[in-house]
Amino acid sequence: MKKRLSIELTENSIKFILGAQGKNGISIEDIHREAISSEQKGNISSSVEKIKEIIESKGWTRYKKVLLCRIDSMEHVMIELPNVPEEEMESIIRRKLENQKLVDDADKIAYGAIGDFSPKMLQGVYTQVMTQEFLEKISLLKLHGIDFEPFAADRGMRKYANKKENSFFIDIQDTHTIAAIYFKDKLSLYRKINVGRRDFVKSISEILNIEKEKADEYLKEHSYVSNIKATELMERGVDIGPQLNMACESTLAKILRKAVQYIDYFQFKHSGEVLNTVYFSGGELKTEDIRAALERELYIGNIYDYNVKSGFLESDLTQEIFSDNNWNLLAGTMQSEEGIYRLKSKLKLPFKINKNPVYIFLAIVFVMFCSIKFGYYKMQELEQTKQIKMISEKNRELSDYIKESDALEKKIKNVKKDTDYLSKRIGKNTIFNNFLYEVSEILPEEIYFEEIKYSGDRVHLEGKAISDDDYAEVYINELLSSLEGITGSVRLLKTVKFQQNNRINDFSIEVKLSGGEKNEKK
């Protein structure tokens, strides 16, 4: 079985999973976690040295290695691109990032089209910029590839997303929460909320005025404490139930406020769509109480647990890491052999020079012969290239001329088609249009129409007269008088008035249009 090593580097810790890919899935053979001291936090060079040290001590140097980089300063960017050929995508992405001043000439970019298509001609491409300095520092690890958070998360979440519904994933990690929305089976939104498990611990510590270590023990023991659970704790003699409830609910509220904003954004982007299911991951926070809170606040009835166990073979180590959601992303990286960016290592072969004079002379003659031969063929190649370029230029000019001619012919046909259509419509509706123009000229300010229906030579008008001086009916009479004054165009057939009060009157008027020839001349 092929073994590979996945490494996760964050600001606070380094994690390792050694796995073996078999026919039936991935078996986890070893795991390791190393904390990063506050003094070394953010020091990539120091972290690389620590990773090298652990790999050598564990005997893992011979395995393919993929680094999942989760450094806070290296944020991903989601951009929308047209559906272009793969070979052109990188240059287009780089141009867009340069316009936003997010990339320099020496920087490398990793990207993947894992976003949703909206509209259909665009695709969502998640992009990660890597500086030359960063790549030089991690080159000491002799990596096979590099992975980044959105891509690692997508591998696990996508197994739950499907083409028949929209899904919302909420993953409460140690330092932050991942919020991801899938439009059918495509990633539509990926955000990090700066509230995580540590914030639950911090809130408990501050409300109870205790050390964080003790607050952490309370969270492990009682998990998320809802209002109902707080009452149960009180009945069992645990007096701190209400305080735990206050700490848990206030922290969860910060996550849910952001979640509601993301749902609103998704529904604005995809008009008429709703979220069908919430998938939740939160370590020991995964309880019925927190699922009830999510259902109540997000108005989504289907709440399910999720992790990325799919594709992994059952073992004690598998159970250990998937009981802690902080391994979810590294497990996503383990499912890829090279991450999102493959590193091409240069192989250096040692060689020896034979210093025998005869061999040196023969080598010089051979090099001169090759140089002359190469020069001759190069001259021929340049001449052929020049001729091919001339022919290509002429073909391109001819092709451009043909395209312009076709486009012009198409525009002429479209204009003629539109002209014919408008001529028919204008001829048909001239009498009615003239009537509307006449009405707009005589309509009192106190009257407005709620409905205008036109069929054949009949027009039905319904509306209201609103007056500040208790004489609303006067304005209806004024309108009727004005309509009768449109000579040769209108004949009143029916008038109905309904009085709501002195200031508001409803009315319904039916008229017959006539004098078509006279109207056409106006």
TrEMBL record:
Keywords: Coiled coil, Membrane, Transmembrane, Transmembrane helix. Residues 391-418 form a coiled coil. It comes from the Bacteria. The chain crosses the membrane at residues 358-376. InterPro entries: ATPase_NBD (IPR043129), FtsA/MreB (IPR050696), PilN (IPR007813). This is Fimbrial assembly family protein.
